[in-house]
Design brief:
The protein is an alpha/beta fold. It is built from twelve helices and 13 strands. The strands form three sheets. It has a seven-stranded mixed β-sheet with strand order 2-8-7-6-5-3-4, with helices on both faces. The protein has a four-stranded antiparallel β-sheet with strand order 9-10-13-12, with helices on one face. A two-stranded parallel ribbon has the order 1-11. Helix 3 packs across helix 4. The protein binds pyridoxal-5'-phosphate.
């Protein structure tokens, strides 16, 4: 066998595969998983019941157009269901948008510490990812615009951004869009929109409603607590919706996932509980970690980006290992170019208390080894 006969397309081997947040500590002991920004309080009991109920019809193909789910999303967010496409997580929609609008020779723009899937999706499509620098770990409108050229096809912006927790205001988003050429697609990834209370925040719905070259993506994986089921959706112009419907798999969202997502959408009380939990514990956690002397970036999501001292035994790698030894799993941020930080999701009340106590012990005890 000649080892070089079969080769993936240019760009594929440049991809560092996406590594999700760990679910177990090294010893396999049960752990508190704060590594993937999942819902601290879990899924709506109504969504769980709908999922179980759908198990009776596993021999049937799903509704390939997600008709009932799109109707439910349209009702909940006041949108035209014909302008919605559902996907197997918003990750699938990100990949489909790149495949539809960018290829070899094209550029896909994102901010330096933006969500990793944009770079991966661009490389997978043979396009060239371009990172614009950020200012204080926040997307910089002018730096993004300065990198737009005739090869730019898509600009991805997570708003709020994962992992930094920062956001652009509605006015900044509008300015970014206003200066973007009309043949560049602006994709606003609003995966954490439901958590944000800031009055100057906009999920991008209005921009997407008004402009052909704007798409907003959303997910059921975060506030709605359905990460396991892989359901996301996008709202865009008829032209973009048409393009994505031509290339997506005909049954890309499973039927149990569709039915659970509809039940989750209708359970407003559970959504309010998830939001209230985050409103209570995100600021509490931030204050506690600041009081320990850590640098904690402001966040409007359901997670915090925490910077550790750059001293051996007190750095982010040592903190990660120490937390894991105590049954807590944060997310290491080397892949995001932020090796001195950890991203930590908001957990249940007792998880949050344990996190603070373990970090206190870490910072106040003797220096610790970095590896397990
Ligand atoms: C978690 C996350 C997503 C999405 O996920 P899916 O589970 O694929 O819907 C998308 N964008 C950002 C910024 C995220 O953090």
């Amino acid at each position: 066998m000649s080892p070089l006969a079969l080769r993936p397309r240019a760009g594929i081997l440049e991809i560092s595969p996406y590594v999700g947040g760990k679910a177990e500590t090294e010893g396999g002991r049960p752990a508190i998983k704060l590594s993937a920004n999942e819902s601290a309080i879990g899924a709506s009991p109504k969504a769980i019941a709908a999922f179980k109920n759908a198990a009776e019809r596993l021999h049937r193909y799903p509704d390939g157009s997600c008709s009932a789910l799109r109707t439910a999303i349209g009702r909940r967010f006041n949108l035209d269901p014909d302008r919605i496409v559902c996907g197997a997580g918003s990750d699938e929609l990100i990949a489909l948008l790149v495949r539809a609008y960018a290829g070899p020779g094209d550029e896909v723009l994102h901010s330096a510490h933006g969500f990793l899937m944009y770079r991966i999706a661009a490389l997978a499509a043979g396009a060239h990812p371009v990172a614009a620098p950020e200012r204080d770990l926040k997307a910089d409108v002018d730096a993004l615009l300065a990198r737009v050229n005739s090869r730019t096809r898509i600009l991805f912006l997570a708003n709020p951004n994962n992992p930094t927790g920062s956001y652009l205001t509605g006015a900044e988003l509008r300015r970014l869009h206003a200066q973007l050429p009309p043949d560049v697609l602006l994709v606003i990834d609003a995966a954490y929109a439901e958590f944000v209370s800031a009055p100057d925040y906009s999920s991008g719905i209005e921009l997407a409603r008004e402009h052909e070259n704007v798409v907003m993506t959303r997910t059921f994986s975060k506030l709605f607590g359905l990460a396991a089921l892989r359901v996301g959706w996008m709202y865009g112009s008829p032209a973009v919706v048409d393009a994505i419907n031509r290339i997506r798999g005909p049954f890309n969202v499973s039927q149990p996932a569709q039915e659970a997502a509809i039940a989750a959408l209708e359970d407003l009380e559970h959504q309010a509980r998830a939001k209230a939990h985050n409103d209570r514990w995100l600021p509490w956690l931030r204050e506690q970690l600041l009081a320990l002397g850590l640098l904690v970036y402001p966040s409007v999501g359901n997670f915090l980006l925490v910077e550790f001292p750059r001293e051996p035994g007190r750095d982010a790698a040592a903190a990660e290992a120490f937390l894991e030894r105590h049954g807590l799993i944060p997310r290491a941020m080397g892949a995001y170019g932020l090796p001195h930080t950890l991203r930590i999701s908001v957990g249940l009340e007792e998880d949050n208390h344990k996190l603070v106590e373990v970090l206190r012990a870490f910072l106040q005890g003797p220096p610790h080894a970095g590896a397990l």
